[in-house]
Structures are given as structure tokens and as C-alpha cells.
Design goal:
The chain has 306 residues and is an alpha/beta fold. The chain has helices at 13-21, 47-55, 67-76, 92-95, 118-125, 160-183, 215-224, 290-295, and strands at residues 2-7, 25-31, 35-37, 42-44, 58-61, 80-84, 102-106, 129-136, 146-153, 231-235, 238-242, 246-248, 259-262, 265-268, 274-276, 280-281. InterPro entries: Fmt, Formyl_trans_C, Formyl_transf_N, Met-tRNA-FMT_C, Met-tRNA-FMT_N.
């Protein structure tokens, strides 16, 4: 079966590898254009593009699936298109090009967390279990009938990066199995049922920690926005980036946003009990341990995060 693979970030690479390993004829890869990275803003291929080039697969770079891109897909004549975090909308004209349509691997148990940031939103919401689903792509936002699902436990210390890494590997197997069923004529997608929730793309503001909130909510938010866009707070008008914070239910006498140095630990008050800072990155400096950061403070007892 001739497969067009559409994907952009690193979490899509295991799926591309799985399809190649399973013997599918991956005739081309559709991915976002090269993007400037690093301080020197060097144009860099997407992780999927880089892997496709290593595999000797044709790469179609497109910021959106426009008329020209659709025409190129039609020339390639795939039997099916597999899509994993491509980062763009597939319009109606392109949906009908492959004879088996487009099969999307989405990192949630649909219809929960439809949208661009399902894993991140799941952690922020405090879900105990999440997963992945393959479904038939249609014009609605992640609304198509589901081929198959898998579940994954959300661990207490999981960041979005941790959970996405695990789901990218298990999801790659699910996608390969789904395409095998499609190829054999044995796929039977079922309409989505259950409560719908949305997972819009995270903004920088989503990473801001509100110290008036309970400690558990702050812990979940910090984990959900790691590695991107990252958790942060402000001190004297300067933004400070934070790694995930730990829970300290034994400490309840610190005002929200105020800090307390306890040996090598730095505690911060919240709307419930304290949290313990992980590594911290002040504006213009490198990431450092909380103890090193606290040693640079003239009067730690007067520090209050905003």
C-alpha cells in the first residue's frame, strides 16, 4: 500500500519509522517548511524531514495544504495518507485524494482533548489516564470515526514531554496496525462517543504560575507546559523560567508567592500548601539549582513571586 506520511515534530518520527519497518511503501513525506532555530536562527529541517531524507523518501515542504500541495499529492497517488502532528489543516479537496482517505494518530482518547495540545491539557486537568487514537480525518476538528485506541497512565511526575515520548512510541504501533487493517479491508471505524473536551494550542501565558492557586494545580500546570512553552513567574518585573515544582503538603505557613530557603531546598507558598522549586532560570542567565539561585539573593525572606 502506497502511503503519504504527514508530520513535523520529533513525536511523529517513531510513526514514520514504524511504517517503513512494517513494509509500507512510504512514497513521500509532507512536513512543515524548514524553520529558524537557535540564537543564529539557522534554517533547520523539521525532525520528520530530516528522518525522511535519511531514509531516502521524497519530502514535500508546505506550510499549508494548498492547491499546489494537493496537486502534488494527487500526482504521487497514495492509497492512504497517515498524519501525525503535521501542524496544518487538511482541506476537503485534499481529503479525498487518497482512496482510503487520511488516518490521523491523535494523542488522546477521543473525543477528549480535541485540538493541538491534548497531552499538555490532559496533565494540566489532572487526568489519571490518557492515551492515543487513530481516526478517519474529516473536516471537523478531530471529529472523525475512530479505528483504534490505546491507554496510558499519567504518572505523578510526568511532564508533557515525558508522556508524549511514551505515546509517540506506542502510538506508532497503533498507527501501523490501523493501516494494516485498512489495507486488508478489515478496518471498521466507529463514531466517537462520550464527553467532548478541547485542547487549544498553548500560549506563553498558559505557563504563568498563579501562586494564589492550590499547590496541586500549580504542579500540574508546570508539568503540562514542560518543555514548551515552559512554566514561569515574575520577580520585580523580570520573567523567571521554572522547571516543574514538587509538592510539600507538610509546609502550610508560607504566604502565596513568598519563598523560604530550607537547606538546599527553596519553598514557595501557594493557595494551599507550599511547593518546592525545581531548577530555575532568571532572566538572561542559565538554568541553575534553586540553592544556587537563592544564594544570590540579598534578602530571600523578602522575595515574593508575582
Amino acid at each position: 500500500m502506497r502511503v503519504l506520511f504527514a508530520g513535523t515534530p520529533a513525536v511523529a518520527v517513531p510513526s514514520l519509522d514504524a511504517l517503513v519497518k512494517a513494509g509500507f511503501d512510504v512514497v513521500a513525506v509532507l512536513t512543515r517548511p524548514d524553520a529558524p532555530l537557535g540564537r543564529k536562527r539557522v534554517l533547520t529541517p523539521s525532525p520528520v524531514a530530516a528522518r525522511a531524507e535519511e531514509l531516502g523518501i521524497e519530502v514535500i515542504r508546505a506550510a499549508k495544504v494548498d492547491a499546489d500541495t494537493t496537486a502534488r499529492i494527487a500526482e504521487i497517488a497514495p492509497d492512504v495518507a497517515a498524519i501525525v502532528a503535521y501542524g496544518g489543516i487538511v482541506p476537503r479537496a485534499a481529503l479525498g485524494v487518497p482512496r482510503h482517505g487520511w488516518v490521523n494518530l491523535h494523542f488522546s482518547l477521543l473525543p477528549a482533548w480535541r485540538g493541538a495540545a491534548p497531552v499538555q491539557r490532559s496533565i494540566i486537568a489532572g487526568d489519571d489516564v490518557t492515551g492515543a487514537a487513530t481516526f478517519q480525518l474529516e473536516e471537523g476538528l478531530d471529529t472523525g470515526p475512530v479505528f483504534g485506541t490505546l491507554t496510558e497512565t499519567v504518572r505523578p511526575d510526568d511532564t508533557a514531554g515525558d508522556l508524549l515520548e511514551r505515546l509517540s512510541l506506542s502510538g506508532a504501533v497503533l498507527l501501523s496496525q490501523t493501516l494494516s487493517a485498512v489495507d486488508a479491508g478489515q478496518a471498521a471505524p466507529q463514531p466517537q462517543t462520550g464527553e467532548v473536551s478541547l485542547a487549544p494550542k498553548l500560549s506563553l501565558e498558559d505557563g504563568r504560575l498563579d501562586w494564589q492557586q492550590p499547590a496541586l494545580a500549580l504542579n500540574r500546570r508546570a508539568r503540562g507546559v514542560t518543555p514548551e512553552p515552559g512554566a514561569w513567574t515574575t520577580l520585580e518585573g523580570q520573567r523567571i523560567k521554572l522547571e516543574p515544582v514538587g509538592l510539600r503538603p507538610d509546609v502550610k505557613d508560607i504566604a502565596p508567592g513568598a519563598i523560604r530557603v530550607d537547606g538546599k531546598s527553596v519553598l514557595v507558598g501557594t493557595g494551599s500548601h507550599a511547593v518546592e522549586l525545581g531548577r530555575i532560570q532568571p532572566a538572561g542567565k542559565k538554568m541553575m539549582s534553586p540553592a544556587d539561585w537563592a544564594r544570590g539573593l540579598a534578602a530571600p525572606e523578602k522575595v515574593v513571586f508575582q
